[in-house]
Amino acid sequence: MTTTSVIQWGLWALLLWPQHLAGSTPLDCRDDLGNLSRCTSISQEKLLDRVIHHAELIYRVSEELSSLFEELFIPFPFRLQSNQAAYSCITKALPIPSSKSEVQQISDKWLLHSVLILVQSWIEPLVYLQMTMERYDHAPDMLLNKTKWVSEKLSSLEQGVVVLIKKMLDEDTLATGYSEQGVVQNDVQPEVLESVLRDYTQLSCFKKDAHKMETFLKLLKCRQTDKYNCA
User: Fold this and answer.
1) What are the backbone angles phi and psi of residue 203, rounded to the nearest 5°?
2) Which positions carry the signal peptide feature in this UniProt record (predicted)?
3) Max alpha carbon distance in the chain (Å)?
4) In the chain, at which end, N or C, are there fewer CB atoms within 10 A of the end residue's CB?
C-alpha cells in the first residue's frame, strides 16, 4: 500500500469516525462513587437495547481497526498466514459456545454470562495492546484513537451487562476471573515482526469475539419478543 493510499484511507476513516458516535446512547453505568446506579433505573428492555447498540458499535470499530492495522503493518503473505492459527486466540479455551446449534441450545442465563466472560477476558489484553501500539513508529492517531475507544467502550459494555444480569436473572454476576496472563505480562521483548503479527492476531481474534457478543445479545433480544422464531 502506497503512502498516498494510506493517507487517503486515513482521511476516509476520519470522516466516517464521528458517524459511529452520532445517535449512540451512552452506557456509562457508574456514578461518582463507582456504583452502577445510573443503569439500574433504566427499564430492562431499554437497557438491553443500549447494550446491543454498544456491542454493535464495538464490533464495527473493531472491523475498521483490524483492517487499518493490516493495511499499515502486515505484509500481504503474512495476512494469509494469520488465518492459519499461527497464534492462538486468548479466548480459545473459554467455555463459550461456538457452533450455531450450541448457541441455540444454551439458556438466556448462559447467553448473558458468555457475553460477560468474553468482555472481561478482553479488557486487560486491549489495555496492553493499546500500550504496545503507542510504541510503534509512525502509528497514526486514528489507529491509536480507535484502540483506546474500543478499550474504554468495552469497560462500559461490561457495566451494562452486569446490570442486565441483575435485572433479567435477579442474581449477581459470576466471578469469571478469566485473563490471559501470558498476553498481559510479557517480559520478553519479541522481534518486531513477531510482535506486530501477535498484535494483528489479537485484533483479529477480538473482532471475532466482538461479533459473538453482538450475536448473543441479539439472540437474547429475539427470545424476549419471539421466542420460537429465533435463528
Assistant:
1) -65, -40
2) 1-22
3) 55
4) C
Which range, 5-9, 41-45, 160-164, has the best average confidence (pLDDT)? 160-164
Which pTM does this prediction carry?
0.79
- pLDDT, one tens digit per residue, over 124-139 is 999 999 999 988 888 8
Query: Which tens digit of pLDDT belongs to each residue from 25-79?
Result: 556 676 665 566 667 778 889 999 999 999 999 999 999 999 999 999 888 777 7
Asked if 205 and 89 count as a contact pair (C-beta separation under 8 A), the reply is: yes
* CB-based contact 90:205 (threshold 8 Å): yes
How far is Cα 60 from Cα 68, in angstroms, rounded to an integer? Answer: 13
Residue 33 one-letter amino acid: L
The dihedral region occupied by 107, where left means phi > 0, alpha psi between -120 and 50, and beta the remainder, is: beta
Residue with cell 501500539: 133
d(C-alpha 54, C-alpha 163), whole Å: 14
CB atoms within 10 A of CB 115: 27
Q: Can you tell me the distance from the alpha carbon of 166 to that of 137, in angstroms, rounded to the nearest whole number? A: 44
CA dihedral 100, 102, 107, 108 (to 10 degrees): -30
CA gap 136, 142 in Å, rounded: 13
